[in-house]
Every structure is written in structure tokens, then in C-alpha cells.
């Protein structure tokens, strides 16, 4: 793709495949760039690398290529060994299903063809993740509440993580999460009985629209935090 070439993904994939040779099992792009919501200069390029042998010695051949990629401002790829990947479906069901929904294979095979996750594992990880993220959000809100600009940054920076959890909530209910942020918010709010307007400000900010600068102790931020707590309560009540 032309976008891949512009972002340097094609070159990175080719060099990594050459460096690893037969040890490379899969290399894929996932996240916003694969979903079509990537924002240049703000979104990361997320890559997953699966190798047959993930020992330190076996990865030495690829480290110069990965180091150069990281120096360009992108996160290094997540690296799994083949056996580790197959054995981790009960640990990372949210992440695996999120990747499955939005990924593009750059080299090797598609690692999702035979991958199966369980609903009970998804429910358990979702409860753990959302409680942890709400706890962190509440803590960071307390530190930022007196500074309107800091509140705005907090909402914007936290949204991406919560969107991942929104998609997991919809999958748990048997739905297919939409790629667009506004549709994702509406469907999650409808499923969980939330007020979707709590996310209006952050959606506007993420879409590059002119969002009013938040004031200290701004009720917009307070409503956002309270709504995330209600989402956590909803997940608590879900049955496996």
C-alpha cells in the first residue's frame, strides 16, 4: 500500500524478514493504522512479531533493524514465540480479539487463523482491566483537577485505552465493534446504559475539532470520570 511505503512499514517488514529468515513466523500491523483511524503524528504504528525462537540469541539478528525503527519514533513490535502465542489466549483475550478485528499481515502467516479465545477469559480480563484503568483515571483526575489544560490532556490520553475496553464490552455482548470512535461510543453507551454525551468533548478533541478549553474542576471531566466508573459497575454485573 502507498500509505505503508510512506510510513516506512514496507521497508521495515522487508528488512526484518531478511534479518530473521526462517525464524520469522508472522509480522503484522494492528491497531489504528489497520483500522483506518490512524492520525499521522499522533497515533503509533503497532506491530506484532511472532518468531519460532524468541531467545535472546535468536533475536540478535533483528535487533539492529528494530532499534532503527524505534529511533524513528515508533514503538518496537510486540514479540511472541510461537508456543507462547498459542498459550496466551486465556491471558490476553481482549488484546488478541482487538488485533484480530483490525490487522494486516506484512510477512509470514496469519496467526489468527487457528486462534480461539473463550468468553469467560474475556469477561475476567475485562473486569480486571477496566477496574485498573478506572482506578488510575480517578487517581490522575485528582492530581489534574485544578488545572484545566491537564484535565484536557488526561481525557485525550485515556480515551484510546478505554476505546479498547469499549470494543471488548461489545464483543462480550456478541456484537461487532464499529471502527469509528463516535459509533463505538454510542453503541457502548446503549449497551451499558450510559450517557453518551459524557464523551462529546473527548470525541471532538480526538477528531481535531475545536473543543472548548476545560476549566479547573470542569464538570465535563467529572462527568467523563463518573461515566467510566458506571461502565466498570456494568461490567461487574455481567455474567460469564
Layout of SSEs?
Blueprint: H1 2-7, H2 9-20, E1 24-30, H3 32-35, E2 46-51, H4 56-59, H5 63-71, E3 78-81, H6 82-86, H7 93-101, E4 103-108, H8 119-144, H9 148-172, H10 181-192, H11 200-206, H12 219-237
Parallel strand pairs: 2-3
Antiparallel strand pairs: 1-2, 1-4
Strand content: 5-15%
Secondary structure: helix percent: 55-70%
Number of beta-strand segments: 4
Low-confidence stretches: none
Number of domains: 2
Widest sheet: strand order?
A: 3-2-1-4
Q: What is the average of the pLDDT values?
A: 93
Largest sheet: 4 strands, mixed
> How far is the N terminus from the C terminus?
41 Å
Number of helices: 12
User: Could you give the order of the helices and strands?
Assistant: HHEHEHHEHHEHHHHH
Kindly provide the radius of gyration, computed on alpha-carbon positions and rounded to a whole number of angstroms. Answer: 19 Å
Which class best fits the helix and strand makeup? alpha+beta
Broad shape: globular
Amino acid at each position: 500500500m502507498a500509505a505503508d511505503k510512506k510510513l516506512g512499514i514496507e521497508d521495515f517488514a522487508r528488512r526484518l524478514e531478511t534479518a530473521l529468515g526462517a525464524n520469522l513466523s508472522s509480522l503484522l500491523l494492528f491497531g489504528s493504522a489497520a483500522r483506518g483511524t490512524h492520525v499521522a503524528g499522533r497515533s503509533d504504528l503497532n506491530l506484532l512479531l511472532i518468531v519460532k525462537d524468541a531467545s535472546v540469541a535468536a533475536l540478535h539478528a533483528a535487533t539492529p533493524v528494530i532499534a532503527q525503527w524505534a529511533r524513528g519514533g515508533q514503538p518496537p513490535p510486540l514479540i511472541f514465540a510461537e508456543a507462547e502465542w498459542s498459550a496466551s489466549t486465556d491471558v490476553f483475550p481482549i488484546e488478541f480479539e482487538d488485533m484480530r478485528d483490525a490487522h494486516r499481515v506484512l510477512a509470514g502467516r496469519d496467526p489468527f487463523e487457528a486462534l480461539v479465545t473463550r468468553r469467560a477469559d474475556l469477561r475476567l480480563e475485562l473486569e480486571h482491566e477496566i477496574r485498573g484503568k478506572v482506578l488510575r483515571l480517578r487517581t490522575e483526575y485528582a492530581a489534574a483537577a485544578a488545572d484545566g489544560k491537564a484535565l484536557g490532556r488526561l481525557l485525550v490520553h485515556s480515551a484510546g485505552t478505554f476505546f479498547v475496553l469499549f470494543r471488548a464490552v461489545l464483543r462480550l455482548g456478541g456484537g461487532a465493534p464499529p471502527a469509528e470512535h463516535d459509533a463505538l461510543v454510542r453503541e457502548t453507551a446503549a449497551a451499558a446504559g450510559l450517557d453518551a454525551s459524557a464523551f462529546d468533548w473527548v470525541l471532538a478533541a480526538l477528531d481535531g475539532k475545536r473543543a472548548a478549553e476545560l476549566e479547573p474542576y470542569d464538570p465535563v471531566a467529572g462527568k467523563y470520570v463518573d461515566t467510566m466508573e458506571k461502565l466498570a459497575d456494568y461490567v461487574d454485573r455481567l455474567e460469564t
